[in-house]
Structure formats: structure tokens, C-alpha cells
Amino acid sequence: MEPSEDGSFQTHRSRRKRIGVALAGILFLATIFGVVVLVTLLVDVVTSGTPWLDGRFITSFPSRNPGEAGIKSALFGSLWLMGLTALISVPLGVASAVYLEEYARDGWFLRLIQINIANLAGVPSVVYGILGLALFVRFAALGQSLLAGALTLSLLILPIIIISTQEALRSIPSGIRENAYALGATRWQVIWSHVLPMAAPGIFTGVILALSRAIGETAPLILIGALTFVPFLPRGALDQFTALPIQIFNWTARPQSEFEGLAAAAIVVLMILLFTMNLTAILLRNYFEERRAGS
Question: What is the pLDDT of residue 1?
Fold first, then answer.
């Protein structure tokens, strides 16, 4: 349509521009609203929890007396849980991604697996809790143990690790593989010496972000029967346990107002752990990117 025909082209263009400006304004306001709500919640949590944060809070076991309660068992339980979850999920997730991306033949079966992995990444965590209760707690007779919790959380984050690792492997140029093959290297030698080191930044980032999600999950741990009051430290993978999300859930359900401050303090500690894990992901990614650029 010519611009001179009754000015209809200019009118249509002006209307589209006004609509674009209006949508941009709406999206900007939605973003500001979300940020304001998040900042308000963070300020409220930090303000409520800071008076309770001290050395005694970190080194004391839970107690029915708010003045004596702490998060020692919950903190150690979370660290145990994350260690076991990483030990189970990282090798399985990375190995699965390497097979699917480097070895599996393209076809309907591979596409079916990829679709199911993508769907599993969006399944609510409570479903994994039900699966963990049926499979690990009852069928495998692991009971309310750290191992049952770690296996359940591993199922939860495995799809995320697989997808992020596959994306990292796909980002490696195919020319690197072809050059290594031309020099006589086997497929595994190419993967081990070239592909995995170059994909390490993306792999580490995906793994730590997946573990960051797992450390804050409450529903799966409640369903598998994690304890809400644990006045002892776990000594092995088959011991009973509690975790920071469970402890926070327990304190928020108490009628005394003091426990709300304790819950806020535990939330601050959990946020510090999450911040540390995300910072580690950033530092590892930057380190491997600089190493790859230097080589």
C-alpha cells in the first residue's frame, strides 16, 4: 500500500506505534511491581530475622523455647542433603546428556526421550515427593533417611541438569570435533579432552542452579517424612534428618510470635547459601571461560 493513499499507511503505522508504547509501559510497570514486592519481602525478612542471627543461633539445636532454638541440625542436614544429591545427580545427568547429544542416533525414540525430559523439568515438586515416598521410602525400604531425600531431590533436578548440559554441548562448534577426528582421535577422546572442558562453564552453571533449586524445596521432603524436630546431627546417609526448609516450615506454623523471627533468620541463612552457590556458579563459569580463551 502506498503511503499517499488517504494516509491509511501512516495511520496504521501510528496505531501500531501507540500499541507498542502502551505494551512496553505495561510490561515495565509489571516488572517494577514484581521488583518492589520482592524488595519489600526481602527487607521484611532481613529486618525480622537480623535480631536473631548470632553464633548461638547457628550452633544450637532446635528447641521449644524460642530463646534457645537454633538451626544446627537443619543446616548440617541441608549440607548433607546437597552433597548426596550432587553425588547422585551430577554424574547421572552429565552422562545422560553426553549420551543423548554425542552417541544416540536421531530418530523417533530419541525425540520421544527429549520431549519427556523437557516435560519432566516442568513437573511440580510435590509429584516427585509422592514418587520418592512410594519408590524410595516404602519400596526400597530406605525410610525417612538422608539417602531417600537425596534420591528424591536427584529425580527433581535431573531433567534440569540434562537439559543445561545438552545446551552446553551444543554450543561447542562441530569443527572442533571434526578436526580431532581427522587427527585420529576416538569419539570418547574427543569428548573427554575437547568437548567437556569447553562445555564446562555451561555445565557447572546448570548444575549449581539445579542444586540451588533443590536446596529450597520443601514439599518433597515433607512427603517423604523428613523430621521437623531433630536435636542431633546425622552421621550417615541412612540417618534421619531435617533441613532448613523443613525447619522454616515448622517455625512458621508455631503460634508464638518469636518463632516468626526465628523463621526469618533461617530464611536469611538459606538465602546466603543460595547466594553463595550462585556466586560459585558465576566464578566457575568465568574461570573456565578465561581458561578456554587462553588456550
Answer: 44
Task: Kindly give, in sequence order, each residue whose CB lies less than 8 Å from that of residue 31, ignoring residues fewer than 6 positions away.
Answer: none
Q: What is the mean pLDDT of residues 116-139?
A: 89
Question: Could you give the CA distance from residue 224 to residue 212 in angstroms, rounded to a whole number?
Answer: 20
Please give the Cα distance from 248 to 251 (Å, whole number): 5
Is 276 in contact with 211 (CB distance < 8 Å)?
Answer: no
φ/ψ region of 123 (left if φ > 0, alpha if ψ in -120 to 50, else beta) reads beta
The string of DSSP letters for 111-178 reads HHHHHHHHHHTTS-HHHHHHHHIIIIIIIS---S-HHHHHHHHHHHHHHHHHHHHHHHHHTS-HHHHH
Contact residues for 227 (Cβ-Cβ < 8 A; gap 6+): 144, 240, 241, 242, 246
- Cα 58 to Cα 69: distance, rounded to the nearest angstrom: 9
Which grid coordinates belong to 233?
546431627
pLDDT of residue 294: 63
Question: What tens digit of pLDDT does each residue of 228-255 get?
Answer: 677 788 888 888 888 889 888 888 888 8
Distance between alpha carbon 208 and the CA centroid of its chain, in Å? 7
Q: What is the pLDDT of residue 90?
A: 93
d(CA 278, CA 282) in angstroms, rounded, equals 6
**Which residues does 209 contact at the CB level (< 8 Å), separation at least 6?**
160, 164, 278, 281
The per-residue pLDDT for range 164-209, each reduced to its tens digit, is: 999 999 888 888 888 888 888 888 888 888 888 888 888 888 888 8
